[in-house]
Amino acid sequence: MKFNLNQRAVVPLVFILCFNLNLQSQTRLINQFREEIKHAPEEDKKLQAIFSFCEQRQSLSTDTLCKYASRAKVISLSQSNITNIALAEYYIANCLVKKGALDTALQICERNILKLAKKKGSASALMKLTALKAQILIKSNKYKEGLSEIYEVLHIAEQHQDTLMQMIAKNGIGWVSMEMNQTAEALQWFFKALKTTENIALHRVNSNIYSNIAAVYKQLHKNSLAEYYVKKSIAFSRKNENLFFLANGLNILADIYIDTKRPLLAGAPLNEALKIRKVIGDPFYIVSDMSQLAIYYANISDTVKGIALSLEGIEMAKELELTSKLPYLYHALGENYKAAGNYTEYSKTLEIIMALKDSTYETNSAEARAEMDTRYNLEKKENLIALQRLEISNKNYLFYGSLLLLLVTALIAWLLFRGYKKSQQIKLLKIRAEEKQLAARAVTSAEENERKRISRDLHDNIGAYATVLMANIEQLKKHPCEDGLLQSVEKISLSAQNIMGSLQETIWVLNNDLITITDFIDRFKLYARKMLQAFPEIQIRFKERLEMDVELSPAEALHLFRIFQEALQNTLKHAFPKNIVVTVETNETFKISIKDDGKGFNEDEGTDGNGLSNMTFRAKEAGYLLNITTGYYGTEVALIKNQSFAVL
User: Fold this and answer.
1) What are the extents of the domains in the chain?
2) Burial class (CB in 10 A: 0-12, 13-18, 19+), 411
3) Nearest-angstrom CA–CA distance, 590 and 642
4) How far apart are CA 514 and CA 510, in angstroms?
5) CA distance to 16, 28, 239, 240, 590, per residue, from 13 (Å)
6) Is the model's pLDDT at 25 over the cut of 50?
7) Distance of alpha carbon 106 from alpha carbon 145, whole angstroms
8) Ramachandran angles phi, psi of 580, nearest 5°
């Protein structure tokens, strides 16, 4: 359904011409709805009048909104209307948000969203609750979750052709992008919101879109455009009697005056905005405006007022757990300390700001943190530089030292502005995209390689033993009663033991994140001595010259184990040696070798099966150089790694 603007929302021309903000009676539109409630003849009409009254929530004081929302819930419960009950609780949740009870408000939204999700005819209430849930999440620094809810609102609004909610959702997406410093995306969404309809009445209802555009242009230092859009927002807000949007616009206008070296003009809009906030009673925005006004006091060197106002806002934010506003308030406090020349307190304030940003950084989800990494690190470096400079200033209070500090700080700020502002955002977006693609490809490749490696290892070892086991079983089937029965059973038992041993070695490797070379050698010693039990005439010795312990990855350790397992088996089967020596050396070069004094072999003929080719492949996979030397004096199989390796 397309949105049909309530005629009451369009202020008649006589009201526009005569409109004068009165903070005691708030707005004429509010008084009009109050009269309708008073004279409503039936409960149903009274309820609809209360809903219309509560829809002016952005201009109502907290106590007034709570009072009328509670009345709406009582009437809705008496009618047993699920949609009306949910709508009444939506306004109660708005009241709780104004009081700073964000967790309770969130629970109310989630409970009613579940009730309305599959109920026909409740799309409007469902969108309102979902949009409020998104607002609460964003106020709690949960940008990713909040953005997901706004997209859900946009989806429902498009399905029902609700023009107003489409504008609100698009504006919300732009707001989140602006909060995350993605100015280009923010502007795109704000202008998409305006282009949703050409109905000027709906533009007045959504006057905050214009103030958001102004905020982005101000951030981009395009102050002329910013002033044009914010004044348009203020004019629309006054005509539509939306006190909340009006306060937003007044604050942005004051910021523009300060940035354009007209600070004396900023006092009036800042004070008007703060008075409006206190009447409306939303602490989230009250403390925000307090920080704005405190920064203004710092700019006009009225630091006594600025410090007092900042401390008052900090106390309020802590009491109401508005942690997302603390960095702004401490920033305002620091600016006043700096303007007052109190560098000791300024230094302490910067440390608090850094700690708050660290806390915010840790609480966001991994993906949200990835998007905010660069901005966070840049701000942290700037604060660290400022702290280092201030430590020098605290030791030397001479005039020239302070002047030098200011010059250095100004130079750094100018260099950072010139170097990063023009290219960093685009560059970082490209880097993020490339990193995500590379990470995805790396994970896919690593998973595929690991699957192939495990498959190959099981095939090369357990597969071979299983083949022997099956052959022995077939032999038993053909000649079950012959004298060779005991020998076949022993072969089957040996093959089974080999399978279990191979599985144990694979599991041992995969169960360890990192394996030291000493653990590796100890494991190979157990294997070798077990093998040599069948060859009592052969002696084996281990030489270890370990200047440092080396860490092996699971894949690397398994490759090395299989190579020397193959080498030992070849020696026992073909070389007929008297002595075997296993040597391990770790210094600048990592070398591990197995040497025998047997008869050697012809390198062209190789050993049975694919032994040599498998050894060569495994050495390459593990990043080692395989060196096999053989002759009448015996055979040596050596693995060498010349590049850097991890050490304990």
Assistant:
1) 1-182, 512-648
2) exposed
3) 7
4) 9
5) 5, 13, 9, 11, 88
6) no
7) 13
8) -130, 135
**Domain 1-182 is of which CATH architecture?**
Alpha Horseshoe (1.25)
C-beta separation of 53 from 34 below 8 A: yes
Q: Which residues contact 20 (CB under 8 A, 6 or more apart)?
A: none
Q: Provide CB contacts within 8 A for 474, sequence distance 6+.
A: none
CATH for the stretch 512-648: 3.30.565.10
Mean pLDDT over residues 223-229, rounded? 93
Predicted confidence at residue 470, as pLDDT, reads: 62
pTM over 0.90: no
- Sequence-distant (6+) residues with CB within 8 A of 58 are 242, 243, 244, 245, 280
Residue 163 has pLDDT above 80, yes or no: yes
Q: Which of 340, 289, 338 is nearest to 312 (CA)?
A: 289
Dist CA 558 CA 623 (whole Å) = 13
3-class DSSP assignment, residue 398: coil
In degrees, rounded to 5, the angle at the alpha carbon of residue 258 between the alpha carbons of residues 256 and 261 is 110
The pLDDT tens digits for 488-538 are 566 566 555 666 666 666 666 666 667 888 888 888 888 888 888 878 899
Distance CA 323, CA 357 (A): 10
List the structure tokens of 546.
């370990």
Give the SS3 label for residue 583. strand
Q: Is the pLDDT of residue 614 over 90?
A: no
Confidence at residue 225, expressed as pLDDT on a 0 to 100 scale: 93
Closest CA to 23 of 53, 66, 72, 64: 64
Strands (E), 101-207: none
For residue 2 the two structure tokens come to 């397309």
Q: Is the dihedral of CA 167, 173, 179, 184 positive or negative?
A: negative
How would you list the strands of the sheet with 634-641, edge to edge? 539-546, 579-586, 590-596, 634-641, 625-631
- Looking at 422-463, list the stretches that DSSP marks H as alpha helix, in order from N- to C-terminal side: 424-458
Scored b (16 or more CB within 10 A) or e, 215-240 reads: bbbbeeeebeebbebbbbbbbbbbbb
| pLDDT over threshold 60, residue 553 | yes
Q: How many CB atoms lie within 10 A of CB 530?
A: 11
Residue 468's pLDDT band (boundaries 50, 70, 90)? low
User: What is the pairing mode between strands 579-586 and 590-596?
Assistant: antiparallel
CA distances from 371 to 365, 382, 512 (A): 10, 19, 33
In whole angstroms, give the CA distance from residue 492 to residue 476.
10
Structure tokens at 644: 């850097």
Q: CA-to-CA distance for 560 and 558, rounded, in angstroms?
A: 5
Cβ atoms within 10 Å of 482's Cβ, excluding its own: 11
Position 580 scores a pLDDT of 94
Local structure of residue 643 (DSSP, 8 states): S
